[in-house]
Amino acid sequence: MGLRIACLQLDIQYGRPEENRKNVSQEFQRLFEKDKNIEVVVLPELWTTGYDLTRLDEIADNEGIQSKEFLAGLAKKYNTNIVGGSVAKKSGESVTNTLYSFDRTGGVLGEYSKVHLFKLMDEHHYLSAGNNSGAVTIEGVPSAAFICYDIRFPEWLRTHTTGGAEVLYVVAEWPLARVNHWRTLLLARAIENQCYIVACNRSGSDPNNEFAGHSMIIDPWGEVLAEAEEGTDIITAELDLEKVKQVRKQIPIFQDRRPELY
């Protein structure tokens, strides 16, 4: 079974949701004019607002309603699944960094709020941590979706691959200063979990940070199938899901684990 994937590596307008929605619409159009066979489109973290955290009371999406309607419309229009990056979702007095996934009909496949808040970018002052699983099934493929800092917690990703996940989606606003960590961690997560990693980072900068780009699609051997540079870009790749089964059979780490010891 094959699965054709695209990552939209976007520059995000700081604190301007409407401008960012317009840009995403244009990028979808550009993508599907070139390749109508894309089955999953992935967006970066906090693509509606960027890290304009001090204004979240004003610009966060109430219950995620506007973002869900927007992304569901794109899914239906282009007959594609979407791993919708993440948005600032306001629920009562709290705001979460929340990722929605959609099927081709615009139906919500899953909702995941970032579990590990990144204190170095003050997330803990403005956001509430999530507590739910990232597991999601896309085109019949057991998968999971995570947000940025989550990849520094291998036990969290392993929880999902021991549950059967074959593709791990990562959406991020990862800084350029630590781009080597980004690449190394993603490669390690692919190899140790014997799965595909589809990681969509943002490009550009905001008033406080410069971002790394380097969105990547990595196979279960740790081979890089596609990688962007630092600027705005679209990367695509075909995932061969049989390879996950082959690699896991060839080196049976999941059978050889001894969880009673750890």
Summarize the structure.
With 262 residues, this protein is an alpha/beta fold.
Please give the structural blueprint:
Elements: E1 2-9, H1 17-34, E2 40-42, H2 56-59, E3 61-62, H3 65-78, E4 81-83, E5 87-91, E6 94-102, E7 108-113, H4 123-126, E8 135-138, E9 141-147, H5 154-161, E10 167-171, H6 179-193, E11 196-200, E12 216-218, E13 224-227, E14 233-240, H7 242-250, H8 253-256
Question: How would you portray this structure in words?
Answer:
The protein is an alpha/beta fold and 262 residues long. The protein has a single domain (2-256), classed as Nitrilase/N-carbamoyl-D-aminoacid amidohydrolase, CATH 3.60.110. Helix content is 29%, strand content 27%. The chain contains 8 helices and 14 strands. The strands form 2 sheets. Strands 1, 2, 3, 4, 5, 6, 7 and 14 form an 8-stranded mixed beta sheet that branches. It has a 6-stranded mixed beta sheet with strand order 8-9-10-11-12-13, covered by helices on one side. Strand 8 (135-138) and strand 9 (141-147) form a beta hairpin. It is globular, with a radius of gyration of 17 Å. It starts with a strand and ends in a 6-residue tail after the last helix. The mean pLDDT is 98.
